[in-house]
Write a structure and sequence with these properties.
The protein is mostly helical. It contains 23 helices and no strands.
């Protein structure tokens, strides 16, 4: 699964800071003291100083604004919003105040409120490209990518050399599956700022989506050259190598990702898949086990580990895993179908029949389950039932030939002919 990283221009709260005008001597001392604490990143002490100021002068918008910035830097966004709201009540004509409150709403994932504040900031300062970029980002979080593109385009109109606007617009175009424009935008972002690894990563993700894995690898490699600890780039490059069936190289990339972050679940899972493709089932089982330890409800890891156990003829272990999957997803027909096939492989045909029959109850149109159920009945010498389910398979295949391979189709016909003698 690829991950798109958005390059934001969300201005640091420190850059929004404003300085005092003139106050009574004691109040001014508290204000200046708070400012000094703020500059030293001592935000709690800054808040205490601003509190003392407010007791002496409760109607000065600047102190509420600066205290709000202090709260924001402590990730106390509700308190920050309250202070920015008070700031706006006292002075509603400064775009920065709405922008700062919008940023706090953004950190709380309250994107509708974020958009409302950024919109007000744009009304007061319509020539600031950062406001459009950040509102576009909020629209993107709400899956309103067309509106996001409009905002990114406006930012580009205001500043044609804004690499982040091109990058973000490229991400929205990609979400809308307009990959041509997405690639154009990511390439433009790279042209403007060739030192940003995220831009290469995002363009690589588009190439990977288009199954142009060689080009994707080139971009991921460039991102890694710029940032040797770019975990996502190693994982996606590993995925591209896997798609090209270069499993040993893929394993190297997943191993590097694990070295960067030993608790990264997808690195273990993807490496396990690569080991399995490379027929190194013991290593695959170790990685799937690690994945499960990190996420005990990871269905894919249980399935993949069970299939690896099955390849090693460790049928009981495979059955245990499929049983766990059924506990987690009791209405999933594939889980019963898989376990039924493992029961059959281990010679437990009656249990195989039970699971495959229940799988077909949940999904009656499964050729695979019908085929293996027929095979179980054949082993149990229940010829009428075996013929019944082989004929169901043939009927489905004749209706849609792409559902099974030609080899399997011929095998079914041969088995039927033998049973009907």
């Amino acid at each position: 699964m690829r991950k798109i990283i958005l390059a934001l221009t969300l201005t640091l709260f420190a850059n929004l800071f404003i300085t005092p005008t003139t106050y009574a001597e004691t109040a001014e001392e508290y204000f200046l003291q708070g400012n000094q604490f703020y500059r030293e990143n001592k935000y709690e002490q800054a808040i205490e100083a601003y509190n003392k100021f407010i007791k002496l002068n409760p109607n000065e918008y600047q102190v509420y604004y600066n205290r709000g910035l202090s709260y924001a830097n402590l990730n106390q966004y509700e308190n920050a919003i309250a202070d920015f709201t008070k700031t706006i009540e006292l002075n509603s004509n400064n775009s920065l105040f709405y922008y700062a409150r919008g940023l706090s709403y953004h950190h709380l994932n309250q994107y509708e409120n974020t958009i409302a504040d950024f919109t007000k900031a744009i009304e007061l300062d319509p020539l600031n490209p950062s406001y459009y970029i950040d509102r576009g980002y909020s629209y993107r979080q709400l899956q309103e990518n067309k509106k996001a593109i409009e905002d990114y385009s406006k930012a580009i109109e205001l500043n044609p050399e804004n690499s982040k606007a091109y990058n973000n617009r490229g991400n929205s175009y990609s979400t809308l599956e307009n990959y041509k424009k997405s690639l154009e935008d990511h390439s433009k972002a790279i042209q403007i700022d060739p030192s940003n690894p995220t831009f290469y990563y995002n363009r690589g993700s588009v190439y990977q989506t288009l199954k142009q894995n060689e080009k994707a690898i080139e971009d991921y490699t460039k991102a890694i050259e710029i940032n040797p600890n770019y975990l996502e780039a190693y994982i996606n490059r590993g995925n591209s190598f896997s798609h090209l069936e270069q499993y040993e190289t893929a394993i190297e990339d997943y191993s590097k990702a694990i070295q960067i972050n030993p608790n990264h679940l997808n690195s273990y899972f993807n490496r396990g898949l690569a080991y399995a493709k490379f027929n190194q089932y013991e290593n695959a089982i170790e990685d799937f086990t690690e994945t499960i330890e990190l996420n005990p409800r990871h269905i894919g890891a249980y399935i993949s580990r069970a299939l690896s156990y099955s390849k090693m003829n460790q049928h009981e272990n495979a059955i245990d895993d499929f049983t766990k999957i059924i506990e987690l997803t009791p209405d999933n027909p594939e889980s019963y179908s898989y376990r039924g096939r493992v029961y059959a492989d281990s010679g437990q045909y009656e249990k195989g029949v039970q699971d495959l029959t229940y799988s077909l109850k949940l999904e009656p149109n499964s050729i695979v389950s019908n085929f293996h159920l027929a095979s179980c009945y054949e082993k149990l010498r229940n010829t009428p039932k075996a013929i019944e389910h082989y004929e169901i398979c043939l009927a489905m295949a004749e209706k849609n030939p792409n559902r099974i391979s030609k080899e399997t189709f011929r095998e079914i016909k041969q088995r039927l002919a033998k049973l009907k003698k």
